Amino acid sequence: MSSGTTSGQAAPYAAHPVDTTGALEERSGWVTFAGVMVVVLGVMNTIYGIAAISNSTFYIADAKYILSDLNTYGWVVLVIGIIQLGVGAGIFARMQFARWTGVFIASANLVAQLLWISAFPLAGLAFIALDVLVIYGLVVHGRKPAAY
């Protein structure tokens, strides 16, 4: 017997050709997740930044900050949120530059959340966790592995 296929059988995986040119890039589920989370984080950072700038009362009173005050952190988070909204649009437009900008801005947001975690601890921890997932989703992006 030969190890090849008989006349009535198709070669294994013949129906799924592998694209080696990269022309048919498929969207990864992690990149879609990261894009959605970048937009959600951008909206939330914008809202929380505006609230901090206007000295809203839902932040913890008399919190001690590492570098400055709540108003400064509000401006930082507001700027990060606006950038995240633009990056999210770029991720959905499949722009390579937006992916790497997304990694950078998620890292910056992670540090900002660490610095003002005393003002809003639970939201800060949630944002940090989402930033880690966004970084993972944008860095690990790639085409589906070829079938063996």
From TrEMBL:
Presence of keyword Protein transport: no
Spans through the membrane: 30-53, 73-93, 114-139
Alphabetical keyword list: Membrane, Transmembrane, Transmembrane helix
Residue ranges annotated for the DUF7144 domain, each copy included: 30-143
Entry-linked InterPro entries: DUF7144
Pfam families membership: DUF7144
Signal peptide location: none
Keyword Transmembrane helix: yes
Protein name from the UniProt record: DUF7144 domain-containing protein
Organism name: Conexibacter arvalis
Lineage: Bacteria, Bacillati, Actinomycetota, Thermoleophilia, Solirubrobacterales
